[in-house]
Each structure stands twice: as structure tokens, then as C-alpha cells.
Amino acid sequence: MRSEQWISELLAKLAREGLERRLAVHPADGAVCDFTSNDYLNLSTHPDVVAAMQAGTMVGSGASRLVSGTREIHQEFEQQLAAYFGKPAALVFGAGYLANLGLLSSYLGRNDTVFADRLVHASLIDGIQLSDARHQRFQHNDAAHLEQLLVKTGTTRKPGERWLVVVESVYSMDGDVAPLAAIAELAIEHDAQLLVDEAHALGVFGPAGRGVAAELDISDQVPLVTGTLSKAFGSYGGVVVASDFVRQLLVNRARPFIYNTALPPALLLAASESLRIIGSQAGLGDKLLELAAHFRRELHEQGLEVGPSASQIVPVMVGDNQQAVQLAEALHERGILVKAIRPPTVPVGTARLRFSVTLAHNEQLLTHTAQAVAEAARSIGQLE
Ligand SMILES: Cc1ncc(COP(=O)(O)O)c(C=O)c1O
Known about the structure:
The protein is α/β, with parallel strands linked by helices. The chain contains 15 helices and twelve strands. The longest helix is centred in the C-terminal third of the chain and has 18 residues.
């Protein structure tokens, strides 16, 4: 149809630039070795988690939280989560994306300023945009640059202007860890609040998987924590962990909370069981991090570039978009499922394969995979 000409032109342009995206059905279980899943602790298929979900009596919640969607499991889980983090309150959202959108858009207004790491997740950027706050971006994981911006912006700070520093603890596409202690110190020194998205750290880093802030013992310096139940928790949904006041603010102001059907009880029953497992089985995160370190060493030995990863997220850097896709395809032919990550998800010129190590993997398999990546890269002329 003529009116849709612009769409076909746009799609053709994306294809020319190696940026077209297509949905693909996940291969049958066992058909490939999967490195695409954020189900880091393999809990989405854990028998106790599945059983907890099945023990529920309802799937959907039927209405938004403020209408009649708040069930006992919502209250219970939020209390469990707050206790787990040692914070006053928690609130669940329909997804981690919505939690970030809801928190940022209700916490900040047009007269406020956000200082965000250059590589924060799209959900944080969208939340900042929705808030209308002034947006300053500092170089990735560069506390010195953040300090420069805080000092410079301080000269024009208006009375009552709220400041918020926004970072992730573990970055989703590089797998590196933020210098959180330095950032928290700066936030306090410059009278700014701090939001840490622990989406990829929960269940993996820190005592009982409580995240990087807990690992560094600086949780009391991080007033706003967001996360997701969709990764290590193996379920679905988003969370904000903060003060009672912030929780009340969100209940009253966060549109992605107010105008969204409440998170299905079935998913919360599963998440609650995952929380119990994560909290009670010591060493799950450590085991995962050891596997990832082994994988990085093996890739390195093969002459592959893994960037600054220090977590279960291990990128193999390629650079060119088409070459990244080619390499992913060459690995698929070898029974390894991994996705090429391209702009705008990562900066231009930094396309990569993002390997997500999980407890479904073991050392032997990771060694084999590193060899297969090198072999595939050589077969298409990307490695000597
Ligand atoms: C850092 C970060 N924050 C938030 C989200 C969004 O979480 P969810 O998938 O639950 O919407 C993601 C997921 O991709 C993420 O990587």
C-alpha cells in the first residue's frame, strides 16, 4: 500500500546498514547450546519454582493494583523483598522496564537534573525523557567525569532543584561493574539522590544475591534500587526498593504502575519461591561468576576480545554490524545460540556477541564454546 511506502524504505535502510531485526522462534530445548538467556540461575525451570506457580489458584490478576488487582501475594512478596534488601519498602511493577519508567517519571520533574551513565539501559533513558528533567550523561563508569559534571552544574543549581545520579550496577551489554562506592560518595557529597538498577546483579552479586551495593556494604547509601524478576529470578516483573515515602509516591503518581494491570499472582508465586532459593542456597552467584571467569579466560586464550566484563555477561567484541551477525550465524551452524547485539542497543562501531553464562553451563561446555567461537571467527576471516 502506498501509505506504507515509508516503512519499506525504512526497513530497506536498516537492512543495508546491517541493523534489521527479525523475530526468530527459539529452537527446541536441547537443540542448541543457549547463551541468550538471562535466566542466570536456571530458576525458570527449577521444579520448586514451577510447582510454586502451579500451586496458585489464579493466573491473571484481573485489574490494576489500585482497583482490585492487589492480592495477598503482592503484599507478601513486597514485604519479603523489602526485608531481603533491608529497606523499608518495595513495590512490584509489570516489568523492570515499567519500574524504571515509573520511578524516574514520578520522582523527577522539569526543574530537576539527572546525571546518568552514558550506557544506561533504554528503560532508564526513556524514564528520564518522560520525566522532562535536564539530562546530563557522564562517560561510562567514569566517576571523575561525573564529578566534573556535578561541580560544573552546581554553579547554576536552583533552590529546590533535585538531582539524581542514575547507574546500573552490572551493565547489560558489557557485563562490567560500576565503581559504585565512588559514585555513591559523589552523590552524597553533591546532595544528589542515587538510583542503581541492579537488574543483572540480583541473585548473582553480593551476600545472598542482594546485588553489588550489598557486596560493597553501601546499601544505606543507595536510596533507590530497581531490578527485575525476569532474569536471575526466572519469573517476570519489575521491582523498586526504596523508602515508604517513595513507595507511596509511586502508588500515587507512577503512571506505568497505576494504569497497568497488576502483575499476575502466578508470576509472583514463582518469584517468591526463587527469592527463597536465592536467599537460602549460599554460593549460587559465586558459582556462576566462577564459570564466567573460566569462559573469559578461555576466550582470551583463543585471542578473542571480551572487553571489561567482570560478570556472567561476556561480550565477544566484533565492531562491524554485518560481521557480528555473520559470526552469530556461523556459531548457530555449530549448535551455539548467541545473538549479535548492534546499535542502537550498543554504541555505533561496537557490535558484539553477547554471551550470557548461566548455571545450565559447565566448564567443559564453556571451553568447547570458546574454541568454537574462535573457529567460527577464523572460518569467516574475522580471526587470524
Ligand atoms: C539494566 C536493565 N534494566 C531494566 C531492564 C528491563 O527489565 P524487564 O525485562 O523486566 O522489563 C533490563 C532488561 O533488559 C535491563 O537490562
